[in-house]
Amino acid sequence: MERDLKEFSRDELTKFNGKDGQPIYIAYDGKVYDVSGSKMWKSGVHMLRHTSGLDLTEDIEAAPHDTEVFARYPQVGILKPEKDPMDEHVPDFLLAVLEKIPMLRRHPHPMTVHFPIAFTILFPILNLLFLATGNERFESSAFHVLIADLVATPVGMLTGPYNWWLNYASKWTKTIAIKVFGSLILISLLLVVFVWKISSPEIMLQPSEARIVYLMLSLTLPVVVTVLGWFGAKMTFPH
Ligand code: HEM
Ligand code: HEM
Q1: CA 84, CA 7: separation in Å to the nearest integer?
Q2: Nearest Cα to 76, choosing from 33, 111, 41?
Q3: Ligand 1 mutation pick, 16, 45, 46, max ligand atoms within 8 A of CB
């Protein structure tokens, strides 16, 4: 039944104070009652001190009577729960979705970043394994992992700002600066290595100075991704 009742925000409720011909509503414990018919609430004020149009839940302690008085008047609605101040920036439709699927609040970023972390670390390891064994399958696996990384990293770069906006109200900090610039460095390096590999597919196969530079770049990737993960985890687990 409660679902069919009108929802009042605290703001809307203030209108119903008996002035200008408005009905007299009071809220108690999340419920809105119409006490327009009560002599005790005539003029919108009760016992010279309790003003209608407000949530009077806490005021009841001062009353000589208990809450049975509410049974005499119809409930006309429910009071919208107050927004958590941490969620002030979050639109109501999203809060409703988060209420239904709570894992969408904290999980999107942590869940998605472990893919780019794994791929970024695996890529140079596979290249080194090729150098150590001469088995070209390691080298071609490295290329496939690089492609997977190029798909996975942008996902982490989207969920990161989402989690930052949602849970940290987009508050700019040094850690966030490191993460944003670090991510841009990571994706740029990945693109450079990828384009290089596409334009010289044999780059790893023969010894050359270019190959050393290519390998150095590959080895820089895990460093960048570790910095990103380190500073990310510092936000999630500050202690
Ligand atoms: C100093 C605080 C208060 C005093 C002295 C006071 C006093 C009274 C008295 C003497 C009555 C009539 C007795 C009765 O019908 O049982 C009454 C009724 C009532 N009071 Fe209060 N009250 C106070 C606070 C509140 C508050 C905070 C609320 C709302 C949350 C409230 C809601 C009501 C309601 C709905 C009635 C029923 C009115 C009716 O039957 O017409 N009162 N109050
Ligand atoms: C691909 C690049 C990124 C990687 C690898 C990465 C990695 C991580 C990791 C490992 C965590 C710890 C999560 C956990 O285990 O709970 C984290 C948290 C976090 N990262 Fe990132 N991150 C990246 C990009 C970004 C970007 C671009 C931003 C946004 C501006 C960002 C914002 C955050 C925030 C706000 C947290 C804290 C999440 C929370 O406490 O709920 N990240 N990141």
Answers
A1: 17
A2: 33
A3: 46
**Which whole number is the average pLDDT over 158-176?**
97
Q: How far apart are CA 17 and CA 44, in angstroms?
A: 5
Q: Looking at residue 184, what is its pLDDT? A: 98
Which atom of ligand 2 is found nearest the CA of 167?
41
- 171 CB burial (10 A radius; 0-12, 13-18, 19+): exposed
Q: How far apart are CA 127 and CA 143, in angstroms?
A: 9
- The band of 4, judged by pLDDT with boundaries at 50, 70 and 90, is confident
Are the beta carbons of 18 and 41 closer than 8 angstroms? Answer: yes
pLDDT above 60: residue 2: no
CB-side neighbour CA atoms (13 Å) of 13: 26
Encode 141-190 in three state secondary structure: HHHHHHHHHHHHHHHHHHHHHHHHHHHHCCCCCHHHHHHHHHHHHHHHHH
Q: Which amino acid is at 84?
A: D
Distance CA 101, CA 98 (A): 5
Pairing outcome for strands 45-46 and 25-28: unpaired
What is the number of residues in the chain? 239
Q: Which phi and psi (to 5°) does residue 45 adopt?
A: -120, 140
Q: How far apart are CA 1 and CA 231, in angstroms?
A: 49
Atom of ligand 2 nearest to the CA of 225: 5
In this prediction, residue 3 carries a pLDDT of 58
Measured over the CA atoms of residue 58, residue 63, residue 67 and residue 69, the dihedral's sign is negative
